[in-house]
Amino acid sequence: MIKVAIVGYGNIGKAAHEAISASKDFSLEYIVDTTKIDVDVPVLNDVSELNNVDVAILSLPSRVVPEVASLLLSKGINTVDSYDMHSSIADVRSKLDQVAKQNNSASITAAGWDPGSDSVIRTLLMAMMPRGITYTNFGPGMSMGHTVAVKAIPGVKDALSITVPTGSGVHRRMVYVELMDNADFNVVESAIRQDDYFINDETHVTKVESIDDLRDVGHGVNLIRKGMSGTTPNQKVEFNMSINNPALTGQILVSSARAVMKQRAGCYTMIQIPPIDYLDDDVDEIIRSLV
Amino acid sequence: MIKVAIVGYGNIGKAAHEAISASKDFSLEYIVDTTKIDVDVPVLNDVSELNNVDVAILSLPSRVVPEVASLLLSKGINTVDSYDMHSSIADVRSKLDQVAKQNNSASITAAGWDPGSDSVIRTLLMAMMPRGITYTNFGPGMSMGHTVAVKAIPGVKDALSITVPTGSGVHRRMVYVELMDNADFNVVESAIRQDDYFINDETHVTKVESIDDLRDVGHGVNLIRKGMSGTTPNQKVEFNMSINNPALTGQILVSSARAVMKQRAGCYTMIQIPPIDYLDDDVDEIIRSLV
To answer: Which CATH class is domain A131-229?
Structure first.
């Protein structure tokens, strides 16, 4: 049994808890969360108290992931996270790789569906068609990372960021905010537009009375590549998903928690992991059923 | 530069040649083929003459792959092949794994699009939705493996096997045969139906005057999985391809020839290979562009 802890008990942490319950090879030892939660496992207030687990699932806002992952890896605890700020992933991986190697621990970072399983698809498509163009179209659906980023902005009581695909990998961000009593909408709107998560996209910010009425965790992806295999053009591949967003992220984190136990010391993205390592079965059995 | 040889110069061997020409990190040293071919590299008559290459791409009928791969691996030459008899892949891999480990060489077997890249997709989908059902629907299109199997039957001058999807992963095989002068159609038809490639599928055998008029190397896949992530049902993923069959197989063999150079001694299927290994670039660069 793999002894696992969940660090952070929001949407993703809860989904990871469900995915662990549905697996046979994990034993959930602790949940780390600062809020009062009603669960049937010991709850710790701080990651510094975490010991005696093989792997920690970091279901935390991306911005705190690198620091928490470093702390745990330096204690020899493996980590998985779904850090999702695409432009920083290479740097975060490189830094965590050093910490992990120094402390004989292992980590899989950016393990969600994008970055994550979509990254694996994009890599595989490059191997199949080295020349060509890939477009990843998201949504319509709620972006967890963007929503969390908006919620962190001063004056925001609650928020929701919907990603709308406008084709060719271009997206519109529809941001809905419920403001605190004294907040100035223009200040909040400006802060959202200037945030790294939004600065490159067409962003619309709308003030609403209640976010609850808008909430829907469904999401989707349409990933297409048209390119050349060798010297042959017009090879076309399309990958479509219609999914419950936190459920899929939680499941991929749990599958990655299994995979990280099989890696040598270091930090990896999902494109660096043999896909078979996510599964809990004998190698020959898996080959017989899936290859 | 990776020194490579192509063993077998049919449709797939020619496509592999094109894919090598379109890559920067390979040097094609030899082609091994028993027929007279017009190419600008040295041609050897037999694999036993092959030396001084890093990796051999085996573009041969599946049934001769295990023996040729064993021979080369035992000489310390890495191999890649697209062995496609699904029910025997686990055993073939296991046997080649022993030979490779004893001789400090490495091999990727069943490296095509199915088995191959589709296998990677199916494995990834299992990590995303551990419970559920996957259907792989092929075609309509010409199956290389099935066509080669028919051509090997006595009395067959030329042949073509078309795979037609009838849904839910069930297929019909439409086999077209051009007979030798003295051949008995009923004997040929019976031999085709009893072949491992056809025995489990609805198979129609038709005698035609000329196979050439029917030839088309386009193919397709529709791979779907509906299942559960954690305890959440109704997660849906669909993967579609429309491709030139030999071109994609040749390209995947060449990408695998790159990947095999990065593996430790042993024989692997594609689900055991980190996807990043198929690509020729710096790790951080690949992460920046694809993750």
So the answer is: alpha beta
